[in-house]
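<discrete_fold_record>
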Amino acid sequence: MEKELIILSVESSCDETSVAIIRGEKILSNIVLSQIDIHAKFGGVVPEVASRNHTKYILECFIKAIFEAGIKIEDLDYVAVTNGPGLVGSLLVGVSSALAFAWAHQLKVIGINHLLGHIFASTIASSIEYPAISLLVSGGHTDLIYLKDAFSYQVLGVTMDDAVGETYDKVARILNLGYPGGPIIDKLAALSSKPDAIKFPTPLSPKFHFSFSGLKSAVLRKYQEDIKNNIPIIKEDYAASFQDIVIKILVNKTKEALAEYHPKTLILAGGVSANRALRRAFTSEFTNLKLLIPEVSYCTDNAAMIAFCAKTMIEHHKVSKDLDYRLEIFSTNRFTDL
């Protein structure tokens, strides 16, 4: 019987410090320390503050992950680490820590693209049948990606301005709802009895591409007009009407891609895929193919998804058996145009 690989992984691309360990298909530990409360007072992630806090907590995450996994360090086969895209200072902490750990214990290292990590979070509970299309929605990305196989990609569309998660945060700021905006707007929208109470326009964009800046501006203009005219601001209706347009855009663009490429699997991934209304929309709209949406706990940044991506790379012989701790010579294939 072939030995199940044991992989320790590190994720620090933004404001979550995470270390995980998997054995084969099983997650032995997945430690995630979020900095949301730290950055909330600034209304968004402050890169320098994020990197300082990664430095403060990364060792604690390593210790907790190894202790919770119940393994010995000498049992590990690989170290995987996010090496981009992300905040440079934050990435530096994770990469440096992973390299130091690997060097100290003479372990092999695999560099992982953060976006691939989100896509392969879907393999934690299932498997991808190729070809596949992934809608990747997060604070920094809104991308439609065609996957011919596990490591052959074509970027079909990207956001032309604001990413969908960024738009949620900006609309939440307009309405004085707090940070992060996504979960707050999702909860408020569910309380509205009139999801189409406000007729916001649907932004136009080229085939497969996205645009949300105009929608954000429309929310701002409507809010300012209501304040000026002493019209009551019903934030639940604002949230529901805004979110209704966003979800329709995401669903319709995805339908266009499916109609042209006819994939076997559709993957909804990234932090915004935790949105309850979006999950319901995809579940009800896409019933004629395999739909993969990671569990909510694996939608936002976490190291388990990085480990599963590394595992897939190893299985598809995308890494050499003679890897060492020098990360720069064997990074994951990059999405060069993202």
